[in-house]
Amino acid sequence: MEIRARAPGKIILCGEHAVVHGCAAVAASIDLCTQVLLQSSQDGDVGLLQLELKDLNLQFSWSISRIQDFLPSETLPLSSSVECCSSDMMERLIALVAEHNIPEANIGLAVGVSAFLWLYISIAGFKTAKAIVTSNLPMGSGLGSSASFCVALSASLLALSGTISSASDQDGNLVLGERERELVNRWAFEGERIIHGRPSGIDNSVSTFGNMIMFKSGELTRIKAGLPLKMLITNTKVGRNTKALVAGVAERAGRHPEAMSSVFKAIDAISMELSTIIQSGASDDLSIIEKEEKLQELMEMNMGLLQSMGVSHASIEMVLQTTLKYKLTSKLTGAGGGGCVLTLLPSLLPSNVVEKVIAVLESHGFQCFIAAIGGGGVEVCVNHRL
Ligand SMILES: Nc1ncnc2c1ncn2[C@@H]1O[C@H](COP(=O)(O)OP(=O)(O)O)[C@@H](O)[C@H]1O
Ligand SMILES: C[C@@](O)(CCOP(=O)(O)O)CC(=O)O
Ligand SMILES: [Mg+2]
C-alpha cells in the first residue's frame, strides 16, 4: 500500500502569539506544502521504520524491535483516541532520535523527528513502513512548516491504520468528512505540541481545513473573504525557533501581567475588526481602497504590539522600513524573531512598484515571493495496489 498526503502552510494575518493566550487570530492557507509518501511493507526492509527527509538528504531508520524495547507498548496504537505525549515518553523518544547523528546545522530537526516517531507509533503501531517527506515551505520561518508536517503525517498514518477510509474522488483523493479532518487535526496538534511546546492550534487547524479561518480559544470559525487579498512574503532567512519565542512571550506576560493582558486584548480587537473587513462583500459602503487602507492600519497596529512583546528582529525592522518607503505596510507573520514578513499589496498598486520593492528587499539578501492565499486543506490519496 502507498499513501500520499499533502498539507499546506499558512500565513497569520493578525494575532500570532496573542492566540496562544486565548485571543482571536486570523490565518489563511498558502500554496506551499509538505508532502508525505508512506510506503508500507518494503521488500527487504521488514522490521524497519524508516524516515527520509528528502530536501535535507537525511535518512533515519529504527528496527521495530528496538522501538518496542524502548517504548512502553501497553496502550499503543491509539489511532482514534487521541492522547498527548507524556514527559516520560518524550524523554524516550528523544533518546531514540539521539541514536542518529543529526548535523549541528539541522539540530532543530530532533523535535520534528520525535514528533514523527510519536505520531507513527501512536497511530500506526509497530508496522514496517517508510515515510518520505518533501516540502517547499522554508523550515522555521513562520509559514507553519511544523504544522503542515504534522498534518500531512497524521493524515497519511490515519489512512494507513484504516482509521480514515472515505471514498475517493476522481483524482483519487479521499473525500474527508468533517469528523475525519477533526481527527487528523487533533493528532497534528499533539505533534505540534512536541515541536512548539505550547501551540495555540491555529497552524494545524488552517493546514487541515484550508481557506481562511478565525481562531480563538481552540474554536475555529471559517472566513469567506469578500476582498481579494494580495500579500508579498519576504523571508528574512534569519532562523528562529517558535518554541523559544512563544516561551519568551509567556515569560514577559508573567513579569508584566496587566500590561501584557492589555496588549493581548488590543490584538483580539484588531483581529475581530480585520476579519469583519475581509469578509465584507463588494456591496458594502466602503470602497476596496478604503478597506485596504483600514487593513494596512490594523496590520501596522498589530506589528507595533508584536514589537512590544519582544518578537521583532533587526531583519524584520529592515523589511518594515524598506516597504514603508514605498508607502506599503508590513507585519511579521508567525512567531517572529526573523522568519517571514507580510506586505499588503493594494489592488491599484502599479506592478513596477512591486518589482522595485522586491529588488531592494532582495538586494539586502532577503527572498521575496507572492503566494496564493486560501486554497484547500489536507489531501490524502491511497493506492492499495502497491
Ligand atoms: N519537513 C520536515 N521534516 C522534519 N521536521 C520538520 C519538517 N518541517 C518542520 N519540521 C520541524 O518543525 C521545526 C520548525 O517549526 P517552527 O519553529 O514552528 O517553525 P515554522 O512552523 O514556522 O516553520 C523544525 O525545526 C523541525 O523540527
Ligand atoms: C506564534 C504562534 O502564534 C504561531 C507560530 O507559527 P510558526 O510556527 O512560526 O509558523 C504560535 C501558535 O499559535 O501556536
Ligand atoms: Mg511552527
Description of the molecule:
The protein has eleven helices and twelve strands. The strands form two sheets. Strands 1, 2, 3, 4, 5, 6, 7 and 12 form an eight-stranded mixed sheet that branches. The mean pLDDT is 94. Helices cover 42% and strands 21% of the residues. It folds into two domains: 2-222 and 374-383, Ribosomal Protein S5, domain 2, CATH 3.30.230; 226-370, 2-Layer Sandwich (Alpha-Beta Plaits), CATH 3.30.70. The chain is α+β, with helices and mostly antiparallel strands. The structure holds adenosine-5'-diphosphate (ADP), (3R)-3-hydroxy-3-methyl-5-(phosphonooxy)pentanoic acid and magnesium ion (MG). The site of adenosine-5'-diphosphate has 22 residues, from helix 3, strand 5, helix 4 and helix 5.
Report a brief summary of the structure.
The chain is an alpha+beta fold and 386 residues long.
